[in-house]
Amino acid sequence: MPPVILAVADVVDGQLTRLSTEVATLARGLAAEAGGVAVGLVVAASPDAAAAELAGYVGRVISVAQPAMADTVPAPFVLAEVRRLVDEGAGVIVAGATTDGRDVLGALVAFTGFGYLANADAVAWADGAPVMTSTVLGGKAVVRSTSSTAGTAITVRAAAITADAAAVPGTVEQRAPATGPAVPAAVVRERVAEAGAQVSLEEARIVVVGGRGVGGPEGFDLVGDVADALGGVVGASRAAVDAGWIPYARQVGQTGRIVKPALYLGLGVSGAMQHRVGMQRSETIVCVNRDPDAPMAEIADLFVVADLFEVGPALAAEVRARKGA
Ligand SMILES: Cc1cc2nc3c(=O)[nH]c(=O)nc-3n(C[C@H](O)[C@H](O)[C@H](O)COP(=O)(O)OP(=O)(O)OC[C@H]3O[C@@H](n4cnc5c(N)ncnc54)[C@H](O)[C@@H]3O)c2cc1C
């Protein structure tokens, strides 16, 4: 029987995440390689827009409106739909390596005995089974893993796969929710917007990152100003976070967020391996650093050897002048 690969989407604030389009692209590629079928799954209080968008990446999307999810965590309801699709024949389940993705697939593995491959950077077939490639030890080693079980659940790292729309959009099939979740759903009592994060780091097209070189919390005023001028989002190295200059939610890297913006601009960031694994897939990398030998020079498309306190304000002013702002 041709394999059925299920791509489980994440919907945040009613929006399909970019990672979901990456996961769907992966599922489509795996299905094409094995002569199988790729199916997308969107489960949300109001799934229509996200399901329509996901259909741009995968041939068949199942959309489930679950009103209860308006004020609960999503995993129990998503899990119920995934289990129904497993009963219908889905044998490879891929989801983003997010809190929700891990919750859903972790519980799925417990209920079904599927094998679990975590944090994939890439997945391909070998001898009829999915084989995951994943970087470990801060990017110093690459491991290939597979599972000997009949079914496999795989979480995929953000920005590892390039989202690629299908030549022909797929169809959306609406379904009534599966009967009640098998595990209780925690109720969300309050949602608190992350300060200064209109767009998440993962979704941002421009990320301006401040490192230890910004010198203190006030240095992030400059980072924020440059980000504001460029229409970008502020990120930080761990050194800046550990120093208490900016919240952990802004950290980019191995133990922070993985970003893949069109433009990464680093101000006073040296480019340690643990930072690079979180940003090295950015489309264009520009860095400002006083030290010409900083490791970031190895991967930057443009490496500006200069003082960030001279370049930063000049850059913000020039961008604003050109925008007529
Ligand atoms: C297990 C583990 C996990 C880690 N996870 C992460 C992670 O997720 N993210 C992360 O970022 N790090 C992580 N780290 C830490 C990482 O190894 C580095 O220590 C950290 O990235 C360094 O941050 P930095 O580049 O800001 O600081 P530094 O390495 O100190 O670099 C500061 C740079 O600023 C430049 N500079 C100084 N003043 C100026 C100026 N005025 N103008 C221009 N340039 C200037 C300097 O030349 C220097 O290159 C991790 C480490 C470990 C062990």
CATH superfamily of the largest domain: HUPs
Sheet with the most strands: spatial strand order: 7-11-6-1-4-5-12
Q: What fold name goes in the CATH topology slot of the largest domain?
A: Rossmann fold
How many strands in all? 17
The computed structural class is alpha/beta
Which percent band covers the strand fraction? 25-35%
Major sheet description: 7 strands, parallel
* Domain count: 2
Per CATH, the architecture of the largest domain is: 3-Layer(aba) Sandwich
Give the low-confidence spans: none
Q: What CATH first level of the largest domain would be assigned? A: Alpha Beta
Portion of residues within helices: 25-40%
Kindly list the characteristics that best describe this protein.
seven-stranded parallel sheet, alpha/beta, Rossmann fold, 27% helix, binds flavin-adenine dinucleotide, 325 residues
Which helices and strands appear, and what pairs or packs with what?
Elements: E1 4-8, E2 11-12, E3 15-16, H1 18-34, E4 37-44, H2 48-54, E5 60-65, H3 75-87, E6 90-96, H4 99-112, E7 115-120, E8 122-126, E9 129-136, E10 141-146, E11 152-156, E12 171-175, E13 206-210, H5 219-230, E14 233-236, H6 238-242, E15 263-267, H7 273-276, E16 284-289, E17 302-305, H8 308-323
Parallel strand pairs: 1-4, 1-6, 4-5, 5-12, 6-11, 7-11, 13-14, 13-15, 15-16, 16-17
Antiparallel strand pairs: 2-3, 8-9, 9-10
Helix pairs in contact: 3-4, 5-8
The chain binds flavin-adenine dinucleotide.
